Amino acid sequence: MAVRAARGYFELTRLHKPVMGNTLMFWPCAWGLTMAARAVHLPLPIFSVKLAVFAVGSCLLHSSACVLNDICDVDFDRQVERTRDRPLPAGVVSMRGASMLCVSLFVPVLGLLSYGDSLSLILGVIGIFPLHALYPFMKRWTWWPQAWLGLAFNWGVLLTWTSVTGRLPSLPLWVLFFGGVCWTIVYDTIYACQDREDDMRVGVKSTALLFGDYVREVLAVMVAILVLCLAYAGWALHLGVGYAVLSVGGTLIHSAWQLATWNEADLKDHRAKFESNGWVGAVIWLGILYDYLSEI
Q1: What confidence tens digit (pLDDT) does each residue in 31-50 have?
Q2: Cβ distance 161 to 35 under 8 Å?
Q3: CA-CA distance, 279 to 27, in Å (whole number)?
Q4: Taking the alpha carbons of 198, 202, 206, 212 in that order, is the dihedral positive or negative?
Q5: Residues in Cβ contact with 273 at an 8 Å cutoff, skipping those fewer than 6 apart
Q6: Helices (H), ranges, 114-144
Q7: Is 118 exposed, middle or buried (0-12, 13-18, 19+ CB in 10 A)?
Q8: For the residues 22-30, what does the mean pLDDT come to?
Q9: pLDDT tens per residue, range 227-263
Q10: Are the CB atoms for 208 and 196 separated by under 8 Å?
């Protein structure tokens, strides 16, 4: 029983899931950090340490947010086929234990934020509340919970830029942030499509239901906005060929492949396409990293 409960608490964090799906919150942090490092000519050893800190912080925040989401959604999860076997609805772990786990994961995140300057701390706290803390309730309040998730998942672009430069983000960073929100809408709508029938029955709102029969067309528009935002940010920040080829070109190629090959009738393909977006985040970062390393 103890082993089963321990496994249940581990599953609440989603760390048992494929790696690339769990990196979707980290990549925007890496984008903003690397762009800032290039802008201020940050030495590579300092950049590497900061990157590691944000990797740990984003992992802890992602896991704690997943636990919070399961706590808030336990009644919904009992009614949805895909989620009814999760640890909380299945009774493998207790609500009290899950709450303690959530807090234990949140506290170190606050500790990491406290090492930054006051401006970074303020932005970091906004990222936790209201962005992450209110996300579980958005599917009750709005048809656009994926957009709110995009705000939460891509906030790291702004936070990491500020933590390095000591300044509020300029327009190109906000444009990149908006593109990231569109990216999140794309991959999380694809993910939500696997639950459309159950969500409609239990009253959960999502862009998968909102877009209906036009989901692929709307997501194509979101992809176009993402690519344009990437291109503008690169032009405005004077990024080079690495960014143009890898970040912009790679995103365009992957997104075209994703929408062209996505099989809406195959529930396994929803998950596969969702997880493939971890590679998109990595490719965008590699383009920025190439230009940073070329100039230090």
Answers
A1: 999 999 999 999 999 999 99
A2: yes
A3: 9
A4: positive
A5: 187, 190, 258, 262
A6: 118-126, 133-141
A7: exposed
A8: 96
A9: 999 999 999 999 999 999 999 999 999 999 999 999 9
A10: yes
C-alpha 206/C-alpha 197 separation (Å) is 12
Of 158, 135, 159, the C-alpha closest to 147 is 135
Percentage of residues in the chain having pLDDT higher than 70: 100
d(CA 66, CA 266): 25
Distance CA 244, CA 24 (A): 21
217 vs 200: CA distance, rounded Å: 21
Residue 3 has which token pair? 């082993």
Distances (CA, A) of 99 to 71, 103, 192: 7, 6, 25
**CA torsion 81→86→89→93, rounded to 10°?**
170
- Distance, in Å, from the CA atom of 109 to the CA atom of 122, rounded to the nearest integer, reads 13
